[in-house]
Write a structure and sequence with these properties.
The structure is a homodimer of 253-residue chains. Chain A has 253 residues and is α+β, with helices and mostly antiparallel strands. Chain A has two domains: 136 residues, Fructose-1,6-Bisphosphatase, Chain A, domain 1; 101 residues, D-Maltodextrin-Binding Protein, domain 2. Helices cover 30% and strands 27% of the residues of chain A. In chain A, the strands form three sheets. Chain A has a seven-stranded mixed β-sheet with strand order 3-4-5-6-7-8-9, with helices on both faces. In chain A, a hairpin with a 6-residue loop joins β1 and β2. Chain A is globular, with a radius of gyration of 17 Å. Chains A and B meet through α3, α4 and β11 of A and α3, α4 and β11 of B. Chains A, B: GO terms for molecular function: inositol monophosphate 1-phosphatase activity; metal ion binding. Chains A, B: InterPro entries: Inositol_monophosphatase-like. Chains A, B: It holds the Pfam family Inositol_P.
Chain lengths: 253, 253
């Protein structure tokens, strides 16, 4: 019998293939909370496909999914909980037809068991089991660099407004990069292209990335230094544990 | 006999192959004007190779090259002038081993005849002849989008400090992306992933990109609305001609 992880890899790959096949298709685009918070018919279709797959195999499992109007609450009492972002970086998906990801994470009693991030257009699946992290078949490892010789992935608003001290922190580095997708940013972090990622995120934005990154020595915290709460949008960052105390000289509530 | 364009494509491709073959090699890194303005032995080696190629075939041609300590002046009296950036995005080259470019442009009496930008790690050569622009073998064309449904490529300092009105302009769009390389940004622009690129650039940063982009309907201007002067670092942008007047409501000296 295939494990949840093996099945999840297939589902995410299938979703990626579906999106690639339809990359030139006309989109139905709807604004959500504001003019730059967009959703397409493909976000909804991918979510429906993956949710149907999960419930077909595991009808008792719970699912926290971005495009659900009424969302279940993340709770460490739940034996089997999935967290799904069907298309992360929807604006990139619409405008760039590139730099977007399908993300899926799985928790048992609040503990992250595995995560998957598919960089759809580059065919890169970042994933982990309970011990190790991979990009496709290649095992990932932390590349240690001094903060001063590193780049940061940032959210544009937090950076320019020095929210949480992010602009101050950036001055201790070689600079910032803005990609417009948490999933693609986590991919760059896992490959060592950025040393930390700082943004204002919902649980489905950081669930998979935080689990995968943890396997190679990264920590995900709120800017107050707490564990993320998994119940709202909040300012969080993922960075290597060896840099946390140095980062926290600048990153403050 | 091979034309300058045909030869230049070979030289740039050869440089890209050399960099890829040596991507894991140890680097000798030197600071230039400040801690985040870096140069490596590979910038110098690629420049030496391409300069030697040009002078071997065309000993009378002039070359404006980034890593020359004494640079010749761009001048519309020069019959054959090359502008070379051996590695654009040197910080990305060092830290990311990705998102850097080799750029070469060619002018006759001040008129851009062709440009080449090689995205080394993605094997994408953006280039043009006197009429058309291409990515590898695929002809490029302008993808018209309204400003409000577009993304901007920006320089981090100009964006956060609203230099030239860039932050104001960004609020009329779906947001900004920061890549850390003019060459890679021009590549995204040529593929329609960003609608405009705004940065503080030297001539070798915008020479190739401005020539290629012009072939498909883009214009390169200083933030004052003049043609770039090709003699110093200045704030320039490249955007489609149909958007210039709308952009200039926000972008001002």
């Amino acid at each position: 019998m295939l494990t949840r992880l093996e099945l999840a890899k297939d589902w995410v790959r299938d979703a990626g293939n579906f999106l690639k096949e339809n990359i030139a298709a006309p989109l139905e685009i709807t604004e959500k909370t504001r003019y730059d918070d967009l959703v397409t018919n493909f976000d909804k279709e991918v979510q429906e496909q993956i949710v149907a797959n999960i419930l077909h195999h595991f009808p008792e499992d719970k699912i926290l999914a971005e495009e659900d109007e009424e969302k279940i609450k993340f709770d460490s009492e739940i034996p089997h909980l999935w967290v799904l972002d069907p298309i992360d970086g929807t604006t990139n998906f619409i405008v760039q037809k590139d730099n977007f990801a399908v993300m899926l994470a799985y928790y048992e009693y609040g503990v992250g068991k595995f995560g998957l991030i598919l960089d759809v257009m580059k065919d890169k699946l970042y994933w982990c089991d309970s011990h190790k992290a991979f990009c496709n078949q290649k095992e990932l490892e932390l590349k240690e660099r001094p903060l001063a010789q590193s780049l940061l992935g940032v959210n544009s608003y937090m950076y320019r407004s020095n929210s949480g001290g992010l602009l101050d922190l950036s001055h201790q580095t070689l600079g910032v990069r803005i990609i417009g997708s948490a999933g693609i940013s986590y991919g760059q972090l896992l490959e060592g292209k950025i040393i930390g990622y700082f943004s204002s995120l919902q649980p489905w934005d950081y669930a998979a990335g935080s689990i995968i990154a943890e396997r190679i020595g990264y920590v995900t915290l709120t800017i107050s230094g707490e564990s993320p709460h998994f119940n709202c949008r909040e300012r969080v960052f993922t960075a290597p544990s060896y840099l946390i105390s140095e980062i926290q000289k600048y990153i403050k509530k």
